[in-house]
Each structure stands twice: as structure tokens, then as C-alpha cells.
């Protein structure tokens, strides 16, 4: 049965509800959302673990922290480090890490004990030889990584450079456009790593149906199109009241 798909977390965060009623009798110190294949991370006096829809634990082990299942793998923190477990409760691999993310698109970022990052595949093995100062989640087959000098770029699922440009900060691609920051400020780039426009901003959001909310360098808030043209002025610069 898939009734767990209708479960929501109770306001007390001690259990789950279905149609406004408790889904089971047990109460926990904390519960997280149910994820496929129908398991939720919980915590009580015995420790952190996972339950099925009846509120029963699916294994006997207890951890310091547990998180939701993604692609049948969940990140857990044990006394000797972080790792991923399968929905059977068995570890995916023998290694331990300083931190683990969640699997997305068959890839997952982890941090080694020497503070370096890399990505694992579904088999729990590194998918490329390089490691980085930071590595983020994959989105549409591309992830952001940071090297030791603080600059960022995009890599493919096998660790190859997407465009070879290194910038002060980067976001993931959404419909072929990503947020990027260079020495002049934030802007948007295309899949080749080139700016969509010359203007720079203090902060920007991803494009939503061809337009994005941004903060200009003078603190005004704007909505721009993909050519960098102003479509709406949401807030004037501090101390300025007249429309431009």
C-alpha cells in the first residue's frame, strides 16, 4: 500500500497524520517526511533510525542522525562518521565520511575527512578521480564544484568541465541558464559559460518564465528579462522616491 504518500508531519513534529488523524500510535522526539519506498527518518531516546508507515523501525541499528531516502539510499551519521544505507538497513559501502548529501540523478556529494569533496555513484564509488574544495548536487546532469583558490565551475556526470570558465560563485543550470558571480557582481550565464548581458547586480534569482528578480548595486530591486533589460522596478534605491 502507498498510503504513506498521503502522510503529513503533525504540528508537534512527533508523528505523522493521514487525513488529520495519527497514522500510528507511537510518538517520537522528531520525525521527517516519508520518502519512497515508504520510509521516514525519526529520532527518539534510543537514537535516530527509519520507520515504515506503521511506525515500526525497519532495522535495529541506531544512529546520531538519519535523513530521508533518495533513490533508495539514505544519509546517516554514525559515531565513526557519515555513510549511506539502503532501504534494507544495510550500508551501501564500508567507507565513512565527514558528511554526506542526498542522492540526486544517481550522484551524491560527500566530504572526506581531509575536508575535500567528491561525488559518489549509486554503487557508492567515486565517479571521477578529482576532488574539490566543495561539490554541490547535480541538476540536469551538471553540478557546481569549487577548487582550492575559491573559484567555481560546472562539471558533467563523469567530472568533465562543461565550459571551462571559473568564477567567484555559481548556481546550477535551469533551462540552460545559471547564476554566476565575477569580480564585478552577479549575472546570468548560458551553457557555454558566457554572460547573457553586460550588467552586474548585487544579487540575482534564477529566471522564472524568462524573467528574474534581482537586486541592483544601488540596493534597488528589479525584474529583468534574459537580455538584462528592466521590466519592473520593485523598489527604488535607498533614499530615492521618484520613479526612473
Strand and helix order: EEEEEEEEEEEEEEEEEEEEEE
Helix content: under 10%
Give the end-to-end Cα distance, rounded to a whole number of Å.
Answer: 59 Å
Mean pLDDT: 96
Radius of gyration: 22 Å
Which blocks of ≥5 consecutive residues have pLDDT under 50?
Answer: none
Please tally the helical runs, counting DSSP H or I stretches of 4 or more residues: 0
Provide the spatial order of strands within the biggest beta sheet.
19-20-21-22
Strand content: 35-45%
- Counting helices, strands and paired strands, the structural category is mainly beta
What coarse outline follows from CA principal-axis ratios?
A: globular
Q: Summarize the main sheet.
A: 4 strands, antiparallel
Oligomer: single chain
Record field, number of beta strands: 22
Overview of the structural elements:
This protein has 244 residues and is mostly beta strands. Helices cover 0% and strands 40% of the residues. The chain has no helices and 22 strands. It has strands at 8-9, 16-18, 21-22, 30-35, 39-44, 47-51, 65-70, 73-78, 81-86, 99-100, 108-111, 117-120, 134-139, 142-146, 152-155, 169-170, 178-182, 185-189, 203-204, 211-215, 221-225, 230-235.
Q: What's the short story on this structure?
A:
The chain is mostly beta strands and 244 residues long. It has strands at residues 8-9, 16-18, 21-22, 30-35, 39-44, 47-51, 65-70, 73-78, 81-86, 99-100, 108-111, 117-120, 134-139, 142-146, 152-155, 169-170, 178-182, 185-189, 203-204, 211-215, 221-225, 230-235.
